[in-house]
Amino acid sequence: MSGRKLKLGLVGLGNIGKTHLRIVKELDNVELVGICDVVRNRADQFAADNGTTAYYDYKDMFDRSGLEAVIIGVPHYGHKDVAMEAFSRGLHVLCEKPIAVHVGDGNDMIAAYEAAKAKKPELIFALMFQERTLPYYKKIKEIVASGELGRLMRATWINTAWFRSQAYYDSGDWRATWAGEGGGILTNQCPHNLDFYQWVFGLPQRISGHANIGKYHDIEVEDEVTAYFEHENGMVGHFIVTTAETPGTNRLEIVGENGRLLFEPGSLKLYRTPMSILKHLKETAQGFANLEAQEEDVPVNLDAPSGHRVVIEKFAESVLSGKEDLIAHGKEGIRSVTLANGIMLSSFTGRIVELPLDADEFERHLQKLIASSKYVKQTRDGGHADMSGSFTKA
């Protein structure tokens, strides 16, 4: 590759924007040509500290900075507008998760990308699903994809390691509101988990969701969720999350006909059975004949590069080389939003939701919640916190 640098701009300088900014400044093949935030003194300060130009409107930055690509780190509802404007100008996009608040907006973004790509075939659209790079998660994906577990029977994920205090929710007027964020733990913390679920197991056919609204926090969105998934191949999934437990749990159990894979932070174990469980249960003449499983510690390369930096590096290299090699393509983002919307629609309506999702029905529920909200948001200055403690260490 030549020594050319990617001319890049950042939109959104909140907590996650600081993470993007720090990484971009460390990359040799990227030139930061502008940063944008609606809070002028924030944009001015970061621009001065990083030797670039401050903008207060992303369209102005698109007009004047000479950028080729943009990283979008604004609140969720803003993803669509910024991305679609970028695509209309032929700009490459790396968008923070989730792709959008609801499936309708996500589909609009993908359609805008496809239209722009028809004119500029090398156009890149990527999503910040950095948890796909985490060593344990990569190994789980590898094992399941290999077919080693055989027919999948059950996946149960208890992930309550997302603790957030009231101070966190009070740190921004957009946080944990239907109008500002569009949801709670499923929209903010768990897009990574929902993406990982669909990345490994695919989308289910049916979803049963149970969401508690502001059960433990003074918020108007969900802070505790339990979901049940039914897949076409007969596999069932359980998804249990909350922002109210500490210490939290991150435990993923995957059962296949040939054994069980168990992940907990710092540990991945495979319990391998000597034959297919499903074959055994049909053929054995003994009523209580359990199979003895062999326990194995699965080796994982913990030194492999991971995290946001890998996603940004892959994005920049793909744009510069013209050879797409992304951690997550933008179009894949619609799947995790489908799961999140499906869980909430099931909870709203009290019924099982069939996929493909009725995106219009979900959006009608969301708009009704926004219009009828009487929630009074209390805010206090949370500053620009170190976000590193919020990222999963897997």
TrEMBL record:
Give residue ranges for domain Gfo/Idh/MocA-like oxidoreductase N-terminal: 7-117
InterPro entries registered for this protein in UniProt: Gfo/Idh/MocA-like_OxRdtase_N, Gfo/Idh/MocA_Oxidoreductase, GFO_IDH_MocA-like_dom, NAD(P)-bd_dom_sf
Organism of derivation: Gordoniibacillus kamchatkensis
GFO/IDH/MocA-like oxidoreductase domain segment(s)? 137-261
Protein name as catalogued: Oxidoreductase
